[in-house]
Specification:
The modification N6-(pyridoxal phosphate)lysine is found at residue 49. With 407 residues, this protein is an alpha/beta fold. It folds into two domains: 52-260, TIM Barrel; 266-391, Lyase, Ornithine Decarboxylase, Chain A, domain 1 (Beta Barrel), CATH 2.40.37.10. The chain is 30% helix and 23% strand. Strands 1, 11, 12, 13, 14, 15, 16, 17 and 18 form a nine-stranded mixed β-sheet that branches. It has an eight-stranded parallel β-barrel with strand order 2-3-4-5-6-8-9-10, surrounded by five helices. Helix 9 links the parallel strand 9 (212-214) and strand 10 (255-258).
Length: 407
């Protein structure tokens, strides 16, 4: 999509608004498939939590992808999109046994990440095959909040607890059909990923009935010019070769699985906002837009970087602005950014807004969540309507109170 396309979307559908380039999603999926083409059996489970709009899930279904889910609601959303339950993996954290049993009844692949639930589930449902999530104690990821494979992480079963894990499997008679890990997001050093993979191979060799090994994801995409990203082609070459060797040693052609979210949808997304006010102070110039961290929380939550462009005036003289939102707290999208000269009414586009952006939006300050648009073959398609006051009030229940006050 170019600047003119983005302005056209904002003019047609209003702002703020999320727009996703379908072709970019398709090309990223095909790139990942190509990187691991030498694997005999490959399965890509799209991580629903990154962007859960049902139209996006249907797009991935058409591409042949499965789904990676973390809640029973995401599982039901995937089923509503028509995805085969056998192509959905459910990897929750800290949920109840009851929820796991509810998902298992839907025919979805269960992935368990703690010994307590594993023992309880195996004792009650020994005939239901499960995957187990291993914590390899490897630090990876671009931020402490998204690094989930280190020793202090709440995720996964520690590699030091493998003997206990094997005892539970033996005592319950349950069947483990998959081994899984996820070290974290924004992986830069594929050497670290390959090191963690060796730990997973060592663990996998201890189980006799595996059907797949799931390496999670966390592949980094570029956020700015000159930014580094995961060399997915090099990783595919090295990991596939090692995986194929392991399969020969194991005596069975297993499936190699991944669960990318950000890698597939981040670069497809743009968040479009209108400049409400340009405010000069003694220290800076603020560009205040018609949105805030209620719609795009990642800069405030993670300190994440999103490139900001003035698509209304892309060739204007570059000046420095602090782009801020309208929430009544510190609400900053970017400090001291060089942007083509901004005037009130201009449209600013935030890049890399496809992953963990709308899905983390809220109604804070009782603001409506924005519309979502899918851009395909040069046309815009509404895939979520902008909310209204009816949506804000929908589940609220008014009660009549008679409050007596002393005179």
């Amino acid at each position: 999509m170019n600047a003119q396309d983005l302005v056209a979307v904002a003019q047609e559908h209003g702002s703020p608004v999320y727009v996703y380039d379908a072709q970019r999603i398709i090309s990223q999926y095909e790139r990942l498939e190509s990187a691991f083409a030498k694997a005999k059996n490959l399965r890509i489970h799209y991580a629903v939590k990154a962007l859960s709009n049902i139209s996006i899930l249907k797009l991935f279904k058409q591409l042949g992808a499965g789904l990676d889910t973390v809640s029973v609601q995401e599982v039901k959303l995937g089923l509503a999109a028509g995805v085969d339950p056998k192509k959905i993996i459910y990897t929750p954290n800290g949920v109840s046994l009851e929820e796991i049993e509810q998902v298992a009844a839907l025919g979805v692949q269960i992935n368990i990440d703690n010994l307590s639930i594993l023992e309880q589930f195996g004792s009650k449902h020994p005939d239901v095959p499960v995957c187990v999530r291993i914590n390899p104690h490897v630090m990876a990821g671009g931020n402490a909040n998204i690094s989930v494979g280190h020793i202090d992480s709440k995720f996964g079963i520690s590699i030091h607890q493998i003997p206990h894990l094997l005892r539970i499997v033996k005592n319950t008679g349950m069947r483990v059909n998959g081994i899984h890990m996820h070290t974290g997001s924004d992986i830069l050093d594929i050497g670290v990923f390959l090191y963690a993979s060796e730990i997973l191979f060592e663990t996998a060799a201890k189980f006799d009935d595996l059907e797949f090994i799931d390496f999670g994801s966390g592949f980094k995409v570029p956020y700015k010019e000159g930014d580094v990203s995961t060399d997915i082609e090099e990783l595919g070459e090295q990991l596939t070769e090692r995986f194929n060797t392991f399969c020969k040693e194991y005596g069975k052609d297993l499936t190699i699985a991944f669960e990318p979210g950000k890698f597939l949808v981040s670069e497809s997304g743009y968040f479009l906002t209108k400049v409400n006010v340009v405010k000069q102070t003694t220290s800076t110039v603020f560009a205040g837009v018609d949105s805030g961290f209620n719609h795009l929380i990642r800069p405030m939550l993670y300190g994440s970087y999103h490139k900001i462009e003035n698509v209304s005036n892309p060739d204007g003289r570059k000046r420095y602005y602090s782009v801020v939102g309208y929430i009544c707290e510190t609400d900053t999208f970017g400090n001291n950014r060089q942007i083509a000269e901004v005037t009130e009414g201009d449209i600013l586009a935030f890049s890399n807004a496809g992953a963990y952006c709308f899905s983390m939006a809220s109604n804070y300050n009782s603001r409506y969540r924005p519309a979502e648009i899918l851009w395909y073959n040069g046309e815009s398609h509404v895939i979520r309507k902008r909310e209204t006051m009816d949506d804000i009030l929908r589940n609220q229940v008014e009660v009549s109170l008679s409050i007596e006050q002393e005179v």
